[in-house]
């Protein structure tokens, strides 16, 4: 068996042989590892795992938040063929306990950042027979361990966000993760390109960020905090060229004056996904970063980064997510399952990067895997020339006046107004729309004036019935340091009483 069917060998060991002295990773501005040095560090971790009794095919729960530790341990477990259950350190304790109990894991590796959580959950997880402190996970042996898995063998369980229940374990193989690592082959880059990111790399962020950066020979800048304040320090210090975030990050970054005197000219590629990019926010990004190409992407944990396209130069229409990237496919189907063009329907994704299924959940797997396609509940349209427009989740759509509207339409109209930094729209009550808006730093907003302005730009079925001026909007909490995805459900819960 060739070792390069193994994910870690393909994205790291190959680079160590190709460009051993090139810097692969910079950690918090203090530690610099070449491809050869990183590969040796991963090998030491791998031999230590083997010495601890971890076997190929064994499931190992990984609760890690130190970015360098995440990178080394995930890659080490991949090399020896252990299956990583990539746990979210921001989950509530009860969620964490329930996920581990149902994961089939018999070993658990953790770092110092989660020591207190581990002590709390350890007594209630008798199925875990091996507990490993990552700080003690090292060996003197730097040689290549025998690859314990490859190709269609399971690599990891990456979990969904769990916003509608217990997070579902998504099984990705060595092959599907390696296909995801090819993302940056479709994006301009140079020999000295630098990818910057934060602690969001645990979970699906690992194959979607770490893997692609190493696979394409970039320098990966890992930080613990990737919020706006530290972003403004790290980008000029490391001359970061490539970043991947959600639009809300730039709403926060450009909503204050702190960025104005910072040199961000090194940024050449901005990847944006996870939520709609409005015309007004794109205009603000381009005004601040005129030399950066702005790309929209679309995918899910089950099929990461399936579509992408550049939206700031006219090559891809704004409001769309581009075309399926090389080797992937996208289609839209109507309720009967027939493929349609220029018609709203369900988004279908396919490609070698698609998940193998949900672990030990055959019924849920059958709901979303239809032949080679993954159908996850998002609505969209596909043009005749293959451009995807994502309209949103079926459950987020707002029905008013007998007409369906996606929240992003209302939100885009609101953020186009002067002094509005961010907006969130939800359906409430019986066919009414509630809009929450956040002012830019130092500005004030008047809800009645916003209502009048929106009456001029939106048809009646899209006009808000209630407008709330808020200090901030709720976002999913993660390790990025900046805002995660907008939580419309919480907006509804916070302000429902204003409509009842």
From TrEMBL:
<dbReference type="InterPro" id="IPR025110">
    <property type="entry name" value="AMP-bd_C"/>
</dbReference>
<feature type="domain" description="AMP-dependent synthetase/ligase">
    <location>
        <begin position="16"/>
        <end position="358"/>
    </location>
</feature>
<dbReference type="Pfam" id="PF00501">
    <property type="entry name" value="AMP-binding"/>
</dbReference>
<dbReference type="InterPro" id="IPR042099">
    <property type="entry name" value="ANL_N_sf"/>
</dbReference>
<dbReference type="InterPro" id="IPR020845">
    <property type="entry name" value="AMP-binding_CS"/>
</dbReference>
<feature type="domain" description="AMP-binding enzyme C-terminal">
    <location>
        <begin position="410"/>
        <end position="475"/>
    </location>
</feature>
<dbReference type="InterPro" id="IPR045851">
    <property type="entry name" value="AMP-bd_C_sf"/>
</dbReference>
<protein>
    <submittedName>
        <fullName>AMP-binding protein</fullName>
    </submittedName>
</protein>
<dbReference type="InterPro" id="IPR050237">
    <property type="entry name" value="ATP-dep_AMP-bd_enzyme"/>
</dbReference>
<dbReference type="InterPro" id="IPR000873">
    <property type="entry name" value="AMP-dep_synth/lig_dom"/>
</dbReference>
<dbReference type="Pfam" id="PF13193">
    <property type="entry name" value="AMP-binding_C"/>
</dbReference>
